[in-house]
């Protein structure tokens, strides 16, 4: 059945779980004959098989969502709010279970997985305020006897395509505002860790979301293309790597859809000479190696300004042997394995590449990776990295932190602004004036001042600039509500019959 090549040397769990689609409120076994493997990255063994949808199976999910739309959009806001409060309660109640699913398939440590669920939950909480969020404007007496008001209405069937690194939170960024606004949804989660989406579907059903409103189809490019080309899908949210984000944006919009496509990143953390170096080193280690560097907001390049470099590299080097790498289910593990063997090998190859390009390997993560079959790599620190090197230019997406040294603040800002990505950036300094100037100067969507991973809270919106986002609107928060609705303006008159007369002139407002 499996068409996806297995990683060399991968073993299989005795009994493989089978992950099915979720259509019209029930699990549906795939019929395409295509599927892909799911691994336990800490053990390096295959634990499951996920069905891959055909074009027809995607169409079935879309038709169900289309049928459910008419009644879901008509559900009152107070009833939708009630359902959202129930979703909130159920996700909260099951946050431990969801986290365990994430750790089992993604590999991230349990505490990190719980953090992911908590941040997703905040987006659900924001959506509990949907009556307030959908309030329109009203203008009385725009003209004599005429009132004008604006309303926001749902789009119809919306779709989400999500990456492997946040299998619960990123889908929540999408389905929560989409459903709260009255849309129905088809989710295509990452084929690497799809179980959390099906678990979420069960919780939504339990919370009272009607069948057909939320559907999950699994798969690869076939399913993605079926979504992008489907005439009944009004809008697509995508989060993933930049080449695919660009493809999704171009293909989806050419098929008449509204698309927001969030891409990859190369996030810089600038450390000025006046910064508290211990605080900066703690932040760099946390933000560089947390979730094994598999975060789109992970810090991957440190830019040491002036004489900050030696002290900073020394302080980070001192901290690295203490990072506990191990099975994410073990309570003392701080960093888990990478998601697949292929990805681990690709990330590890950057260590030699960096050395060949002239970088200094201060700490080599291959030397500290736990033994066994898991997809582990320890923490790596590269110094003397230069912007022309591949280890600088590429999004490595693993526990490899680079340091580059520059003479001035201006040089540091130029590096960030010339980088093709623009997701997150941070500056570490004690100088408020410089920090304020930095927020003015820098061409990046999310900025941290002495905060290494500046992911906006749920009532702001998340999104990068440049090659980190294709589309106009950021995800979740107020812009998420805007993305999943369209505006309508009503001009209304309830005339006094006594004043009615035929008037063929151009309508006047005064
Ligand atoms: P990916 O681009 O490989 O996959 C994302 C989704 O696209 C998956 O659902 C996958 O099935 C699908 N896909 C993969 N190849 C495809 C193809 N050729 N055609 C159509 N669809 C395809 O990304 P990933 O490896 O799962 O996730 C890591 C990437 O996501 C990193 O680049 C990371 O920076 C990025 N990311 C960005 C954000 C953000 O908010 N900007 C957040 C999380 C992750």
Q: Summed up, what is this model?
A:
By secondary structure, the protein is α/β, with parallel strands linked by helices.
Describe the structure.
β16, α13 and β17 form a beta-alpha-beta unit. The N and C termini lie far apart (72 Å). 37% of the residues lie in helices and 23% in strands. With 510 residues, it is of the alpha/beta class. The N terminus is likely disordered. α2 packs antiparallel against α4, α3 runs antiparallel to α7 and α4 runs parallel beside α6. It binds nicotinamide-adenine-dinucleotide.
Please describe the topology of this protein:
Layout: E1 11-19, E2 21-23, E3 26-28, E4 35-40, E5 45-51, H1 55-74, H2 77-93, H3 95-106, H4 110-127, H5 130-133, E6 138-143, E7 146-154, E8 157-161, H6 169-180, E9 184-188, H7 195-207, E10 214-216, H8 221-229, E11 233-239, H9 242-254, E12 258-262, E13 267-271, H10 277-289, E14 299-305, H11 308-319, H12 341-357, E15 360-363, E16 380-383, H13 390-393, E17 400-406, H14 409-418, E18 421-422, E19 424-428, H15 432-441, E20 446-449, E21 465-466, E22 469-470, H16 477-483, E23 485-493
Parallel strand pairs: 1-5, 8-9, 8-11, 9-10, 11-12, 13-14, 13-19, 14-17, 16-17, 19-20
Antiparallel strand pairs: 2-3, 4-5, 6-7, 7-23, 12-22, 15-16, 18-21
Helix pairs in contact: 1-8, 2-4, 2-7, 3-4, 3-7, 4-6, 8-9, 10-11
């Amino acid at each position: 059945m499996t068409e996806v090549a297995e990683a060399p040397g991968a073993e299989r769990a005795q009994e493989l779980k089978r992950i099915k689609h979720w259509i019209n409120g029930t699990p549906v076994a795939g019929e395409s004959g295509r599927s892909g493997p799911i691994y336990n990255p800490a053990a390096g063994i295959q634990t499951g098989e996920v069905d891959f949808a055909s074009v027809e199976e995607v169409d079935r999910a879309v038709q169900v969502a289309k049928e459910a739309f008419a009644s879901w959009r008509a559900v009152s806001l107070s009833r939708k709010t009630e359902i959202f409060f129930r979703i909130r309660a159920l996700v909260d109640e099951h946050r431990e279970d969801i986290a365990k699913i994430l750790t089992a398939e993604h590999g991230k440590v349990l505490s990190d997985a719980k953090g992911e669920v908590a941040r997703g939950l905040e987006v659900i909480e924001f959506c509990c305020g949907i009556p307030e969020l959908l309030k329109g404007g009203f203008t009385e007496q725009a003209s004599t006897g005429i009132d004008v008001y604006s309303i926001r209405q749902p789009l119809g069937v919306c779709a989400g395509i999500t990456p492997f690194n946040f299998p619960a939170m990123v889908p929540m960024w999408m389905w929560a505002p989409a459903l709260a606004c009255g849309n129905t949804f088809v989710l295509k989660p990452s084929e690497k860790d799809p179980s959390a989406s099906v678990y979420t579907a069960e919780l939504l059903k339990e919370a009272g979301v009607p069948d057909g409103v939320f559907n999950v189809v699994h798969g690869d490019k076939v399913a993605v293309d079926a979504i992008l080309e489907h005439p009944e899908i009004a809008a697509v949210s995508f989060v993933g790597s930049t080449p695919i984000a660009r493809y999704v944006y171009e293909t989806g919009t050419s098929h008449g859809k509204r698309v927001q496509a969030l891409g990859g990143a190369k996030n810089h953390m600038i450390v000025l000479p006046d910064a508290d170096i211990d605080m900066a080193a703690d932040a760099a280690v946390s933000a560089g190696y947390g979730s094994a560097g598999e975060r789109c907001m992970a810090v991957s390049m440190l830019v040491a300004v002036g004489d900050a470099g030696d002290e900073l590299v020394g302080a980070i080097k001192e901290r690295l042997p203490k990072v506990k790498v191990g099975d994410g289910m073990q309570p003392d593990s701080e960093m888990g394995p990478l998601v697949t063997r292929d990805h681990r090998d690709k990330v590890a190859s950057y260590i030699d590449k960096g050395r060949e390009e002239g970088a200094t390997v201060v700490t080599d993560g291959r030397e500290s990776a736990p033994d066994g079959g898991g997809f582990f790599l320890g923490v790596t620190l590269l110094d003397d990295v230069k912007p022309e090197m591949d280890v600088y230019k590429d999004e490595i997406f693993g526990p490899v932190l680079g340091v580059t040294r520059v003479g001035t603040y201006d040089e540091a800002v130029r590096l960030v602004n010339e980088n093709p990505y623009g997701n997150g950036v941070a500056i570490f300094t004690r100088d408020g004036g410089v920090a304020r100037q930095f927020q003015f100067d820098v061409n990046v969507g999310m900025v941290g001042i002495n905060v290494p991973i500046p992911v906006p809270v749920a009532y702001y919106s998340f999104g990068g600039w440049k090659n980190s986002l294709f589309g106009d609107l950021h995800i979740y928060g107020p812009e998420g509500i805007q993305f999943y609705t369209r505006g309508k303006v009503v001009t209304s008159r309830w005339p006094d019959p006594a004043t009615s007369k035929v008037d063929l002139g151009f309508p006047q407002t005064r």
